[in-house]
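The pair is listed for reference:
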Amino acid sequence: MRRSEIEKKLSEGCALTPAESRKVLDVIIDAMTEMLCERKRIEIRHFGSFFTKDYQPYEGRNPRTGEKIYIGEKTLPLFKLSNRLAPKLTEKQNVDDE
């Protein structure tokens, strides 16, 4: 689903103008971005949670040349599916497979 599709769903589901739905989505994304930058967890009940994980630096290899390279420390965003949503996805997949 693309951003424009989310904006359209907001517009239709909440009786908002396209400009209003764009603004609502901007506020939500900005708030989530700010929380993740502050290393805070975001939990959306029955959907999942977003959080960050810090990785230590390590020595890796360039897959093409085999040359050793230094990989610096980094922080990445992660998502964990809720226990309620996971069975729904499995159920949907099983229906699609039939």
Observations:
- The chain is about 45% helix and 30% strand.
- The chain has two domains: 1-38, 39-98.
